[in-house]
Amino acid sequence: MAIRLYLGCSSGTHIQHQEMMERYGPLEEWEPSDKYVIGQVYGKDIQQYDAMAVPYADDTVDTIYNSHLLEHLPHVVVPATLKHWHDKLKPGGELIINVPDLEWLCVQTLRYCRGEAIESQHYNKLWGEEGLLHGFYGSQSHAGEYHKSGYTKDTLQALLAAAGFVDIDVQQVVEAHDMGVLLATCRKHERR
Fold first, then answer.
1. What domains can you pick out in the chain, each with its CATH number?
2. Which residues, in sequence order, are CB contacts of 35 under 8 Å at separation 6+?
3. 162-182: pLDDT as tens digits
4. In this structure, are residues 89 and 65 in contact, taking their beta carbons and an 8 Å threshold?
5. Is residue 170 within a helix (H) or strand (E), and if so which, with residue range?
6. Kind of pairing between the strands at 61-67 and 40-41
7. Which of 72, 98, 64, 80 is nearest to 159 (CA)?
8. For residue 20, is pLDDT > 90?
9. CA-to-CA distance for 85 and 106, rounded, in angstroms?
10. Which one, of 186, 191, 155, lies nearest residue 86 by Cα?
11. What pTM did the predictor assign?
């Protein structure tokens, strides 16, 4: 059976995650994990381990998916974390990352400050849970809800390439949270 990891799953089920995950395999094949959350996602127990220390041998994981996780890691450990995920993947294995788009957040914040319309119904103010600052800094509701790094299309692509990933595709999209995000897909090079 394929090993598919949903790192930083949080609690509850989110339709955008389910749709993305099902592109790669049935939900039953996914192992949800989160360092800070206890419970179940998609009827499976959440495994509690740190995304920077995935407990699988190198070259054994088929797919790693994470959404709104990478920005919670200190920027100084991001290169090593991406390399760690690369090492865990099988040759040809795929990584999917969804993170807030720092460029989108900056543009929307400047629009807000100028009194212009923001390109979001959900993030339509500066402060609070539905505020643009939430995209920059996280909800800060507990230790795992602080943003410690940020990404533009170019910086995320460069970090993935430096970690050894190939076939890197970083798209700027608006996701179900009505927020501009970067959706990156890439894979580990297949051995010859």
1. 4-100+146-188 (3.40.50.150)
2. 8, 48, 49, 50, 51, 144
3. 999 999 999 999 986 788 999
4. no
5. strand 165-174
6. unpaired
7. 80
8. no
9. 29
10. 186
11. 0.93
